[in-house]
């Protein structure tokens, strides 16, 4: 009996025709072809249980041909087997299953996964380090951390410098006027040029490009006017001719020290070999300068106080940089000529290229100063100071709110830059292309 039933399950169409056509059993279903394929088929007809209580309703043999997905097949089989789970009994599970099965969904899943990877690496590589650096700078400027590190840079008295002019103030009549009269040419301009390094031709080209007029414009050089490039003394002559102002860069400092060293040694008759042995490139530059040229360079201060310019506040020109929060009188002069980075704990500046650039701390300090001032008194402008500097060819032209870096690597075949400040504080950067004199 059990065997018979499995037969009847095995050949569902035959019982169907059997039921439908009970009195005429010799119709198509019992053709010879069927017999050839299934020798038991006739037997199955004869043994099919009729009218018994265990007989399956015929509707259960009907399949929906349009429903060919795996889930529909799962449904028809699950009615027989209670072991397999019916997804459709739990509506939300079935819903999720149908989404996951859809090929479009899988395609989107890949796209979302890629986007997720991009977002994560962006956060890890760019955003998080930026936020971390910003937080570290804020901590470095927080007065509460001052005691922990035992004092910041500038709290001790600096050693006295001899043979160096620490500071000068620019003649105020050279400054552009605070208000610009519309439709008129600027009455006065300041043309501040980054590291020239003996590139006289390029300096001349730049002055021509800004239509420099010595009767109304004033040239300021941010130091490192000489050395490395081809025409050191030519640059000094041009600057003197134009009545330019200057600051002392690390290269002026070195060449002038070399000169005084040479003089010292040539005065000693016993030590004449010294100049012969160390006839380096820097020594040749030092020798090429006349006493007048050297005296002009010697007169360049380390810090040049320019004065107040509209929208820029107090403006100062140095070669390297300034430590924020330290008065100009207490700045350490060799650092002012050479700094690139700053220690966040102690605020001690360094010429090293590795670390937090000093201008980041400087800008943040002055932003905090300006915003805290706004809360207290909005009628007076805050005591912020804008620094215009050179020295950092690696960072190239670097214009920020309170710091303006103008060394764009002219001597390395890049550009010579000028910051031109006009009446009303309007300013723009003008550049010329340079020949390559030194491989960077
Ligand atoms: Mn320099």
Written overview of the protein:
The protein is of the alpha/beta class and 440 residues long. Among the domains are: 91-141; 167-265 and 281-373 and 380-433, Purple Acid Phosphatase, chain A, domain 2. It contains 16 helices and 14 strands. It has helices at residues 2-10, 13-20, 32-37, 41-47, 70-78, 91-101, 103-141, 146-149, 200-209, 232-241, 250-267, 273-277, 281-288, 291-298, 333-338, 358-376; strands at 167-169, 189-193, 217-221, 245-246, 303-309, 313-317, 341-342, 349-350, 356-357, 385-389, 398-399, 403-405, 415-421, 427-433. Strand 11 (398-399) and strand 12 (403-405) form a beta hairpin. It starts with a helix and ends in a 7-residue tail after the last strand. The model is unreliable at 1-47 and 71-82 (pLDDT under 50). The structure holds manganese (II) ion.
Please name the CATH topology of the domain at 167-265 and 281-373 and 380-433.
Purple Acid Phosphatase, chain A, domain 2
- Separate helix tally: 16
CATH superfamily of the domain at 167-265 and 281-373 and 380-433: Metallo-dependent phosphatases
Estimated structural class: alpha/beta
Largest sheet: number of strands, sense, barrel closure: 6 strands, mixed
Q: Report the span from N to C terminus.
A: 97 Å
What number is the mean pLDDT? 81
Contiguous uncertain segments of 5+ residues: 1-47, 71-82
The set of bound ligands, ions and cofactors reads:
manganese (II) ion
Number of beta-strand segments: 14
The shape is elongated
If classified by CATH, what would the architecture of the domain at 167-265 and 281-373 and 380-433 be?
4-Layer Sandwich
Our estimate of the beta-strand percent is: 5-15%
């Amino acid at each position: 009996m059990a065997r018979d039933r499995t037969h009847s399950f095995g050949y569902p169409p035959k019982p169907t025709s059997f039921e439908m056509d009970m009195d005429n059993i010799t119709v198509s279903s019992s053709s010879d072809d069927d017999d050839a394929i299934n020798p038991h088929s006739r037997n199955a007809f004869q043994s099919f249980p009729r009218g018994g209580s265990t007989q399956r309703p015929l509707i259960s043999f009907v399949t929906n041909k349009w429903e060919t997905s795996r889930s529909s097949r799962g449904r028809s089989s699950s009615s027989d087997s209670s072991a397999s789970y019916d997804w459709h009994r739990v509506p939300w599970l079935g819903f999720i299953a149908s989404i996951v099965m859809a090929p479009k969904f899988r395609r989107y899943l890949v796209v979302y996964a890629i986007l997720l990877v991009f977002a994560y690496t962006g956060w890890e590589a760019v955003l998080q380090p930026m936020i971390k650096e910003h937080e570290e700078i804020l901590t470095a400027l927080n007065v509460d951390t001052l005691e922990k590190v035992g004092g910041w840079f500038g709290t001790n008295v600096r050693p006295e410098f001899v043979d160096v002019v620490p500071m000068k103030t620019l003649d105020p009549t050279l400054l552009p006027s605070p208000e610009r009269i519309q439709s008129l040419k600027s009455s006065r301009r300041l043309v501040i040029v980054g590291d020239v390094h003996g590139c006289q031709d390029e300096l001349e080209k730049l002055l021509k490009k800004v239509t420099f007029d010595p009767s109304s414009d004033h040239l300021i050089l941010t130091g490192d006017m000489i050395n490395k490039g081809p025409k050191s003394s030519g640059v000094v002559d041009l600057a003197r001719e134009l009545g330019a102002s200057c600051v002392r860069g690390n290269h002026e400092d070195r060449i002038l020290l070399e000169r005084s060293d040479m003089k010292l040694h040539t005065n000693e008759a016993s030590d004449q070999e010294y100049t012969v042995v160390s006839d380096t490139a820097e020594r040749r530059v030092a020798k090429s300068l006349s006493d007048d040229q050297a005296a002009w360079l010697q007169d360049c201060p380390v810090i040049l106080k320019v004065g107040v310019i509209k929208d820029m506040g107090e403006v100062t020109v140095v070669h390297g940089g300034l430590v924020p929060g330290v008065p100009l009188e207490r700045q350490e002069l060799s650092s002012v000529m050479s700094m690139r980075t700053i220690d966040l704990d102690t605020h001690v500046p360094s010429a090293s290229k590795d670390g937090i650039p000093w201008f980041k701390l400087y800008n943040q300090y002055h932003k905090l100063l300006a915003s805290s001032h706004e809360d207290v008194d909005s009628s007076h402008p805050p005591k912020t100071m804008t620094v215009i500097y050179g020295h950092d060819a690696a960072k190239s032209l670097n214009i920020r709110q309170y710091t303006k870096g103008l060394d764009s690597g002219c001597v390395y075949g890049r550009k010579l830059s000028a910051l031109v400040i006009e009446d009303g504080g309007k300013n723009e950067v003008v550049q010329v292309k340079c020949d390559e004199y030194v491989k960077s």
